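Researcher: I'd like a structural prediction for the single chain below. Treat it as a standalone chain; there are no partners to consider.
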Amino acid sequence: IVAICDEDLLGKVLEEKGVRFEVKEDFYRGELVDVERALELVETGTIVNLVGETIVSALAERNDVVKLAVVEIAGVPHVQLIT
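Model: Treating it as a single chain, here is the predicted structure.
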């Protein structure tokens, strides 16, 4: 599993229309990396969980299929991929 969030979202709770999404530190906290390194890590995962405009947009620029899988929660993009 590769789980990556934008740094500013770590520890936040996103809520919208009865949906509650917690960007839990115990799941997402790990090594702080730049976007390029994060995208390299995505390539190694069989299950990928991303949340945040920066990381989701960067991956979507490289892979059009990602755009089809994105959902927004409280205006924040989130995507889960299984490869």
